[in-house]
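Operator note (shift B, R.M.): manual run for HTH cro/C1-type domain-containing protein requested after the automated queue skipped it. Running by hand, logging everything below so the morning shift can see what happened. Input copied straight from the record, untouched. If output looks odd, do not overwrite the archive copy; leave it for review.
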Amino acid sequence: MQVKIGEKIKELRKVTGRKQEDLATALGVTPQAISRWEANGGYPDMEMIPSIANYFHISIDELFGYNNDRNRIIQEYNDKAQWLINNNDDMTECIALMRRGLEEFPDRVDFKTKLAFALHKQGWKNKGKEPNIFWEEAAKLYEKLLPHDQSCIIPLLSVYSCLGKYEKAEQKASEQPDLELCRQVLLGNLGSIGSINDEKRAEQYRGDAVLELLHAFQKSLDEAIVCNNELNNSREGLELLLLTRQLFDKIVGTECHGFHSDLCFIDMRCVKIANNIGDHKVAMDCFDSAFEQYIKFEQWKIKQFKRWEERNNKSINDENNDEHFTSSLLKSVNPSGHKVIVCEPSFLVKTATSFPEKEKKLITEDPKYACIFEQ
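Run finished. Output pasted below as returned.
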């Protein structure tokens, strides 16, 4: 990158309403020197750089324009890697991309996480080969990431299972904290027993705990039902999921802030069970609901991307985030502090295959659902 520090100084001076004489006086140089810098006729002495950065209340990296350039490159790596993950079965290009990214930015946890995911996915293309070098490397990466990101425990256990390391998976799972000892629950308990003086903050912690436990409950119930042949093929299983959906809907409220994906996944499971028991009308209603939640999730995702652009282009602080849940229970919870499950159109397409041919044809030919089949 060509460094044009003079242009940056000029830009900062005009934005802050300073004259060349003001900056010259502060730095102990002549206004003519400032003019030369701004015309790219020369550069400030290196020992003067910290003083210039301090004058404009920015970092030296920002003065040289490195921050924006660095953030842009990192975002480009992440965006391209995510696109490759979402749109390709072969992860060769994604793996190479993330390796290049880590050569340039060795400490990026998000790059390591995407590399591990790509390796995990690529391992399925080499299933049966011994050793499976992709799964082996993914396991090592997830093991290193686990202390920094507890969510890595889930893919790590999956990779262990893929490698046939069942005892290791069970041991690693048993080493994790009890549900009552997770961060959100502990902070929520502090708020409940009066250990936090700030009531609003205590209310936020209690809401965080409820939301995380609700999310975990939904996932656990789904897995319990899908692995139980009796529930997966009975109205009892369907009713359990529908009750869970009502509870989730009631607690979260009308503004779900990305948790539309949880509702979408519940609806999709309901579709499959309803089709298993031959209640295709309920299945169609649930599919329509799943589609609506998917659309809301996509709208939320676009809004989040716009907010990211605003934060990077206008230095908007996350503290000014005006997003909030509409339910009384979660009104103090900051939605941006919670991870959400990504909902992809391919999930809905796969769900549609559970219908008999007649209903499947109605779905695939309905213009309303065209967007998911065009991906």
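Quick read of the result: The first helix runs from residue 5 to 15. The chain has four domains: 5-64, 68-176, 181-219, 228-315+340-375.
Leaving this for review. - R.M.
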